[in-house]
Fold this sequence. Notes:
The chain is 31% helix and 23% strand. It contains 19 helices and 24 strands. The protein has an 8-stranded mixed beta sheet, sandwiched between helices. The radius of gyration is 30 Å and the shape is globular.
Amino acid sequence: MSTQAHNLQSPYRTHTCGQLRGSNNGEIVKISGWIHRKRDHGNLVFIDLRDHYGLTQCVVDVDSPGFTIIDGLRNETVIQIDGNVVKRSDDTVNSKMSTGDIEVLVTHVTVLSKADQLPLQVNADTDFPEETRLTYRFLDLRREKLHQNIILRSNVIASLRRRMIDQGFMEFQTPILTSSSPEGARDFLVPSRLHPGQFYALPQAPQQFKQLLMVAGFDRYFQIAPCFRDEDARADRSPGEFYQLDIEMSFVTQEEVFAAVEPVLAGVFNEFANGRNVTQGLFPRIPYAESMLKYGNDKPDLRNPLIISDVTEVFKDSGFGIFAKNIEKGCVVRAIQATGASSQPRSFFDKLNGWAQEIGMAGLGYIVFDGDDAKGPIAKFLDGDRLALLKKLANVTSGDAVFFVCDKETKAAKFAGLARTRVATDLDLIEKNAFRFCWVVDFPMYEQDEETGKIDFSHNPFSMPQGGLDALLTQDPLTINAYQYDIVCNGIELSSGAIRNHLPEVMYKAFEIAGYSKETVEEQFSGMLNAFKFGAPPHGGSAPGVDRIVMLLADEPNIREVIVFPMNQQAQDLMMKAPSAVEPDRLKELHLQVNLPKPKEVLVKKVTDAAAS
């Protein structure tokens, strides 16, 4: 724990529990904290006293007036101890504690607050059910690992804020009660008492407000912004709310945004990396189409050295009938290189094939290149020229293997990406102790629903299309890219961002292509649209997720481990018992009636949600 000094004069302590050292030998001190652990040695009782700053070992002699008091107290009782600092002998020094070269001989004990029987142990690393941990989160937060995670979170936010201010950004707070915005998730709605039947929405992001700040001439804005989205929980996404480093800049190009964001993120990760390696220099820029091909997704984990290749040409009209026929139906073939896999036993390949079938693939065919020989169930169907082309396209050499996925392009990318991760994991190829950043750029402006054929925005509707109005007027919408970008670290998306569409005529046309009438655009985005009509600078920004940054730095697989008071997966706060029913009088005041679903409808929804998760 931190050994930060506590210099205030207080009736409760002269020092913190992480402050005393050998240089304090002989001093009379007061320290206060929680009983972390007691050890009874007959005529002596040893107490590890804990506060936010650390632990101090205290010793109570049987003849001390405090002996009887201490003997009857449970762990986590809050006490104040008066005593003398004594330097430990060389053979009793505890090098694992920052205060391990001293102990405090207790002369007086004051009980400040007794603890009941504990529902979870603070002084143990034992796993407890999530329900228990979240119900008693205040106890869970006393545990060393989680306590340090929250300290790290505070330090990361302070570092982010400092680095933004040093670059000339100013922090502004944007409204929490606002109107709905099409950010891609459900809004949390707040009923208005003064305007019956109308609702505020909690902001999914301060998108429109930060753009309006640019129109207002503030040039460089940032905020550690709370965002609210009514969406389901995931390991890297907390239900309900999250925080992001919200950034917006005026008179900038895409590269200028990158130049502002990169040193902030690289600086924070270097500051808290604890010896782990961080991407140096410019972060790689990877076009969306290239990312989907080479990595199978738009969140590439660059710690993984394996690359996916398009080898459709190798199998087109080949003797391997399954692939050849599927190619005629519009399928593609993706190859996943497996460096050095030729030395693996047959069971390695059989296990991967079984895994592929478990996740919905027909299987995972492969070829092993061993010297001049090509082995495996598919090799015999390809002649020498096709095998040579395969080696060239898939960048494999003797000693490597290559795995294949054949499906429609979207599914092929997904399955190849999953296979790339699984193969690299099983071969232990993923770089350890590293943070690898990249920008994914050139996202498509639009996408088409496969079932309805409807054209819609694929990313951020407020983005500037590459080519501007001319592209919107003359190009097939599905060929238009936008000045949109994501920043990714170790396969986790930290942020989306864009150069914004600041021209009303371009905005009208962009939304028209997605099916919005001029009247709808003016109704839903009147504040921002009206502002653009009075002179708006070119502007852009980004919004890295604070929770995910801390999650990576803390090496935690679940985002709840870096949030002070998280909800559970059902979006419930078990500690504060939220959400909860509201009194009828309050509903009447808000002009609301509750129309609860029937029990059968609730059961169907629970089953559906469980199947989806």
